Amino acid sequence: MLFLNNAINQGVLTPLGIAESAEAGKSILFMIETNPGPGFGILIAYLLFGPKALRPTVPGAMIIHFLGGIHEIYFPYVLMKPRLILAAIAGGASGVGTASILNAGLVSTPSPGSIFAYLAVTPRGGYFSVLAAIVVATGVSFAVASALLGFGRGEKDAPLERPEDAGTPAQRVPSPRSGAAPAERPAEPASPRGDRRSLPAPHPASSVPTSASSSSPATPEWAAASCWPASCASGSRRTT
Question: Are 78 and 88 spatial neighbours (Cβ–Cβ below 8 Å)?
Fold first, then answer.
């Protein structure tokens, strides 16, 4: 899980397996790290019971892992849920146990550890035992990983959050397909003086020009006086 599989296989298991294979014609040490069964079972469990956001990525990882032999592809899936290490341990132990019981072994290390490389280095008459070790490891790791993932019960109860559902409840934007009414915006903070909000002071009447004042002609001087022109000479004032 810490990407030290190649260092352990190429640095420790392969030299020991070569020495054993030179004497017996095959060695089970070549099958300890290179068995694709444990990782393949975990990926199947992810495909059926894993988080819905990750399920579309699993088929490609399964092809790369099982057919391509790149086992590091399933390590991030285990590291996202560290408890799945137990599934990898159970699958690897069951695969080695099955190979030991059936006296399985390979003539050389399969590199990369794909199913095709496995079949290429399998001795004659040993295909059943080698394939049985892979199948048992896959089944055990799948069963343990499925139980650790809760058989998808948690994923059914908690649907995947969509991008438009992110944020606070007041800031969420409904999906155009959902047909739901838009959520209300949060209320603005109240004014310090209460519910009334201060309005800007009105402009002075003298500073606001009106259409009447701008369009009407200038008032003559005799009209502004308090008496009519004919009566002002006699001293009488205008009455209204």
Answer: yes
> 35-89: per-residue pLDDT in tens?
999 999 999 999 999 989 989 999 999 999 999 988 889 999 999 999 999 999 9
| Rounded alpha-carbon distances, angstroms, from residue 48 to 44, 45, 143, 155 | 6, 5, 12, 11
Q: 163 burial class (0-12, 13-18, 19+ CB within 10 angstroms)?
A: exposed
State the Cα–Cα distance between residues 144 and 87, nearest whole angstrom.
5
- Classify residue 141 as exposed, middle or buried by CB count within 10 Å of its CB (0-12, 13-18, 19+): buried
Question: For 108, phi and psi rounded to 5 degrees?
Answer: -155, 170
What's the rounded Cα separation, in Å, for the pair 172 and 167? 6
| Percentages (nearest 5) of helix, strand, coil residues in the chain | 60, 0, 40
Least Cα distance to 106 among 37, 14, 38, 41 occurs for 14
**Pair 143, 63: CB distance under 8 Å:** no
Q: How confident is the model at residue 211 (pLDDT cuts 50, 70, 90)?
A: very low
Is the model's pTM score more than 0.85? no
